[in-house]
Amino acid sequence: MHLSKLGVVGGGIMGGGIIQVLLNAGFAVAFMELDQDLLDKALQKVEKIFRSAREKGLITQDEVQEKMGYVKGSTSYGIFSDADLVIEAVPERLEIKGEVFKALDAICRPEIILATNTSSLSISQLGSLTQRPQKVIGMHWFNPPHIMKLVEIVPGLVTSQDAVDTLIDLCKRLGKTPVQVKECAGFLVNRLLGIYVNEALFLVQERQSPQEVDLAAEGLGIPMGPLRLGEMVGWDTIYRANTSLFHEYGSRFSVPPLLAELYETEHWGSKAGKGLYQYERSGAVEAQRDAAVDSTDLSTRLLSIMFNEGIRCLDERVASSRDIDTALKVGAGMPKGPLQWTDQMGLDRLLNQLETFMQSCGERFLPAPLLRRKVAAGHLGRGRGIGFYEY
After folding, report:
1. Are 119 and 190 in contact (CB under 8 A)?
2. Which residues contact 293 (CB under 8 A, 6 or more apart)?
3. Is 190 a catalytic residue?
4. Digit-coded pLDDT (tens) for 121-150
5. pLDDT tens, 82-132?
6. Is 66 a catalytic residue?
7. Reported pTM
8. Contact, 275 vs 269, CB < 8 A?
9. Which residue is catalytic, options 119, 242, 308, 321?
């Protein structure tokens, strides 16, 4: 469908970034906030992003003024009456998003797509609150939206193919990388990162230092270790997300006691000024590295559990093998996707690692059934000409 005027509900960290991306691509944008103060703050966020781009020589001041002329804010849903598509970017609580979708459904034209930026809530449940469930779809942006290229497109049980195609086309027009993902808890990237971060916390419980765990991951070319990631995102956010993964998938996503402790004591990371790392005004204070620690053992454990979950996602048809790899490279900065990486190391080697770790760490390392089937069939990876890809 033709898109000209787009709407955004919420002008916070995510909403402000989304508004800027839409304006930068040449769309007229209507957005809504609860009061005038929040409207003003949202516009300030958008202007700040443009100002940074101007200082880097990516855009002129005249272009900034022109693009800012195409945004209009309101405290009323009525501003969306002539919108061609609306993206919801309000706090991650079902009751809040549910009220937003009911209001949008009442004001927007029946053919209009309503997209949610949720990272964990059910698209189908949100759609059921409207009279247009076939037009409700997940459009999960990554933070910060004006920088991160990945967008997960998540159809609900009855979302139309037209809605999927429209969102994928929109992402391409925005310069984003869309990946279609089956509706499930955590979708794709957060599901794999969730089990990876959990394992990093289990390692700290076993008296590995946070710095050693992070360095083990970063030494493989991953730009930010799992614990630094948790400190940046916030352990309160990680706790809520990983608790929902545990409720959905069971014991392999058991919440580490350390994560519950960080949550309950409000050691939430950089935003709280306290977490696994010590903080001073200048930032996190790191301990000295222990030369006796074998980072290979740490990195093998971290990667094994994440790769295994990626294989489960493939088996469950959460996404294609190429989309799984693309999502983790673009959305998490991994140098290689988990399935491509497994093909290079050998599927039989991964299976042996998982079985070894299962003996010492328990069921969360239970090998994915598809991995066992592949190894039994001789699909061992690049060296054999076939694994998760053909060579």
Report:
1. yes
2. 208, 209, 212
3. yes
4. 999 999 999 999 999 999 999 999 999 999
5. 999 999 999 989 999 999 999 999 999 999 999 999 998 999 999 999 999
6. no
7. 0.93
8. yes
9. 119
